[in-house]
Design a protein that fits this description.
Blueprint lengths: L5 H20 L3 E4 L7 E2 L1 E7 L5 E7 L20 H14 L2 E7 L7 E8 L14 E6 L7 H15 L3 E2 L6 E6 L4 E8 L2 E6 L2 H14 L2 E6 L2 E2 L2 E6 L2 E5 L1 H10 L28 H20 L5 H8 L7 H16 L5 E4 L21
């Protein structure tokens, strides 16, 4: 932040101070004398400006310096699948369920650490007279290898205390039977984003309130957005799209004003594996950025680019200029139809249907 005007510098420092206060309030760490021979990980400040103009500072641990077997063991944390989210929204349209959302504030900070981890004091906030002290982490901090798993354990414990059980097929989906209303409530949780839904609005709101009493959250009211998916409701229909996220992707890829094309890939195009041993690092980085962004769109609301994206993703380890050109070709297709959305027709009465078009792994012989 060197070189910033004094006013902005003070605003960012105030943002850092708010983060320190949150960490202190959540008992994320204890300040202790540095134990002899202990490893101490570093940290850094990450800054962001929110859409409403708020300045946000977050203290992030440099988890890449952690040693497996000493600082962490398991790190896998389950999250809800996009397919599950879409299935639940389809059911909500068919059954006329009420949908309500919330945003958990600093979700990872609720996870308790099982390991003994020490961290340096954050830059600019060394305690006077205790400059040589370190922070003994008690709760998960963003950046730690096991932060996601610690959050998941805390979430599952909380949901069980509220009467929920999670599905074996998708750990991010919870269900509960409410005795008072004699109906069920479903919760879909993805880190700090959550949906509560069910046939009874009163029961859903009561359960959501109980959750918010335990974990500090921002009430989003009737669901409008989830995981960068815009969710609209008109009568018995539910619509979902990622038009706003798509614009950010096109901006990131430099394709906002690109000429539109009618198909995700040129007709008859067959990508060929690179014969070079290693791709240019800058080319690979840009290619993976484009493909990663397109994968998120594909998984969310754009099945029309599924084949093209998965085909081009096969070359992400060693791409060529031709591969990059055709990954950007998919972006040109999206430029022409940026507002496509999925529609769930609750009045159709068709229920849920599944179909498949299998080519037996392209084996035309057997």
């Amino acid at each position: 932040m060197i070189g910033l005007p004094a006013g902005q510098l003070e605003e960012w420092r105030a943002a850092c101070q708010r983060e320190i206060e949150i960490l202190t309030k959540r008992h994320v760490f204890d300040m202790v004398v540095r134990p002899r021979g202990c490893r101490v990980i570093k940290n850094r400040w990450v800054f962001d400006i929110k859409p409403d103009g708020r300045k946000r500072a977050r203290l992030v641990a440099k988890g890449f310096s952690q040693v497996e077997g000493k600082d962490f063991d398991q790190i896998f944390s389950p999250v809800v699948r996009f397919e599950t989210v879409r299935l639940i929204l389809a059911l909500a349209a068919l059954e006329g369920w009420y949908l309500s959302g919330l945003d958990v504030r600093n979700a990872y900070l609720y996870g308790e650490l099982e390991e003994e981890i020490y961290m340096e004091q954050p830059e600019g906030f060394h305690a006077r007279g205790k400059e040589g002290h370190v922070l003994r982490l008690r709760r998960a901090l963003y950046g730690l290898k096991q932060a996601g798993l610690a959050w998941w354990r805390a979430l599952k414990k909380l949901m069980e205390e509220l009467g929920f059980v999670n599905l074996d097929s998708d750990a991010g989906l919870f269900k509960c039977f409410d005795e008072a209303s004699q109906t069920f409530i479903i919760a879909v949780v993805y880190v700090d984003d959550a949906i509560f839904l069910g046939p009874s609005k009163a029961a859903v709101e009561t359960m959501k309130k109980r959750f918010m009493e335990r974990w500090e959250s921002r009430d989003l009211g009737e669901l409008k957005e989830f995981l960068h998916m815009r969710i609209g409701r008109a009568g018995q229909n539910i619509y979902i799209d990622q038009a706003q996220y798509l614009q950010a992707v096109l901006q990131r890829c430099g394709m906002v004003n690109a000429k539109a094309v009618p198909t995700p890939l040129p007709v008859g195009y067959a990508p060929v594996k690179s014969l070079d041993k290693a791709a240019d690092p800058e080319l690979r980085k840009r290619y993976q950025t484009v493909i990663g962004s397109l994968l998120y769109l594909m998984l969310g609301t754009r099945p029309d680019i599924l084949f093209a994206v998965t085909k081009m993703a096969q070359f992400a380890a060693n791409p060529t200029e031709d591969h990059l050109s055709h990954a950007l070709y998919i972006c040109r297709y999206l430029v022409g139809i940026p507002n496509y959305r999925l529609k769930y027709d609750g009045a159709s009465g068709q229920g849920l249907n599944a179909c498949t078009d299998s080519d037996w792994a392209s084996d035309v012989n057997t």
